[in-house]
Automatic annotation (TrEMBL):
Protein's name according to its UniProt entry: histidine kinase
Enzyme class: transferase
UniProt xrefs under InterPro entries: CHASE3 (IPR007891), HATPase_C_sf (IPR036890), HATPase_dom (IPR003594), His_kinase_dom (IPR005467), HisK_dim/P_dom (IPR003661), HisK_dim/P_sf (IPR036097), PAS (IPR000014), PAS-assoc_C (IPR000700)
Gene3D superfamilies hit by this protein: 1.10.287.130, Histidine kinase-like ATPase, C-terminal domain, PAS domain
Natural source organism: Rhodocytophaga aerolata
Reactions listed under catalytic activity: ATP + protein L-histidine = ADP + protein N-phospho-L-histidine
All residue ranges annotated as the Histidine kinase domain in the record: 435-647
Pfam families registered for this protein in UniProt: CHASE3, HATPase_c, HisKA, PAS_4
Residue ranges that the Swiss-Prot or TrEMBL entry lists as coiled coil: 236-263
Amino acid sequence: MNFTVNKLLVGGSILLSCKMLLIAYLAYRSFISLKEKNQWVQHTYAVLADVDKISSLISNIQNGQRGFAITGDSLYLEPYIQSIDSVDHYITDLRLLTADNPLQQKRVNRLEKAVNQAIDVQTNQVLLKARGQIAALMSYYSTNKGKESIDQITALMHEIKQEERKLLTVRTAALDASFTLTEQVLYGIVGIFAFIILLLYLLLSRQFTLKDTYEKELSVLNDDLYQSNQELLLFNEELNSNREELHATVEQLELIKSELEKIVDARTASLQEINAQLLQEITLHKTTELALLKSQERFRVALEHSQVMVFNSDKEGKYTWVHNTQAGFGNQHVLGKTDAELLPQTEAGHIRQLKCTVFETGKGIKEEVTITTHANRKHYFLINLQPLMNRAGEVQEITGTAFNITDRKLIEKNLQNTLLELQKRNFELDNYVYKVSHDLRSPLTSVMGLLQLMRSEENPETKYMYVSMIENRINKLDDFIKSILNHSKSINLDSKVSAIAFNQIIADCVEELKYLPNSGKINISVDITEEVPFFSDELRVTILFKNFISNAIKYLNPGVAQSYLTIVVCSTATQAFIRLEDNGIGISQEYIGKIYNMFFRATQSSDGSGLGLYIVKQNIEKLKGQIEVESEVNKGTIFKINLPNLQNMVSSKYPLPV
């Protein structure tokens, strides 16, 4: 049995050694083959590089000759001469690189001949230009000899490159196969080492088995010695000699046992260390796997709750992978479609052009684009397109993100509108402060001057005239202060909705304005038709009528026999139509667009504040109404106003509808 086990172990060792030698030989051959195939691939790339360099040199020769022929500047001849000197070197190098390919050698010979012909043509054209023989040069151009040579060179280089690309494909495939074989050989070596470890384990187990066998045999031998004690006494000398030998053997066995225990302890410690490392690596792998899954889940949740769409797109423009389409084109199916199938033609063409640029240049692009969805709503996106390269450095696909910035754009637009409105209000406030201070001070200054004149005047009639002038200035100041108060009320007071009694409001305004000098010279007629009660802000409606009636009185036309103001009001369940027509001095057409501006006076004869129609416009806007004007100089003015009926509002204090 022991003999059989030993033979198996020895035979296994021999087979293992043979297999290791075979694998070592295969590894050596695979590495040699891998190196050779890699050299062939690099050789093919060198041939393609030489062809590209020759093409570049031919282009430099053409450009140099053309530049010299057009401008006569000798600086264009420097790249021309350098390229001619270098092209022979690259053709020679190309011939050496393709020496193993007779078909390519023939193409190289034809290429060299075509290049020499092209250089001769270009050289003749340079000489004709240098000699000033322009007519001969133009005749030379008309023969198209240079173009024929260049076309032949281009065709030959295309054939050479096409042949080398075919070889590159075959050699690259062979190189990949060598890589695969080398990997398999390495896996075989790893297997052999694993088998060696197993064999060592079996040898150690065998040694432990022998140890147990020796101990049992020693025990049996002691029993035999004890039973044969009488016989051993006769052979005492021999027994002592045997005992010494046995003692020496026991010492040797103890030494062997000690060494075996040390070996077992060392192997056990090594196995424990290996086991601990494996356990640590497994734990690390599990931790990494859990972290990766957690990171992927966070990435998925973050994308689904963000305004970012992530996608991949191929060369045909089709979406090969899309995540979070809700941030981009909505819930419609995007995968496998192109931009032309998802977006309007103009927007799809722009995005397609950006993708083509990335494929052509191999560089990423960031740009803000506008996309109109199928709901005909415009959205703004910040698109980031990046190339995905293969091992050869070619762009295979595009990966990109589309970040929805529509809300940000709307906020920016609202901020811009708010800023413009604030600038407008600030400008109006500056003008308002200046004009108010000026118009308040002007009547006071006149009053102070008239008072000074009264002190030095003794004639009672003249003093009475000064008093009348002072009264006029005070009335003007009072009108201006009332205009300012009306403006302040229209801006700051909340709207109070109540039933509007148009007859009473107009009558009160006419009565209040009787103090104006020309109030008795105008005939005011009122025609009011109410289908239902009209509700609005009584204060603001009163301000409107008071300003219109005041302007009709102030700006009477002295050239008419009878001045009039006709007020027509027609209210319905939805709105009130108000028409005010007079035959006053009218407004020039050049001022029609400016009459609602603050402090604007349309006539030099005006002694008003310039706030009346501005306040009218502000109040109509507050009431969400509309106003139109028609006017002709010396014939009169017509104002048409539409105000909404707020009868559905039930509270005594309502905000107007937005």
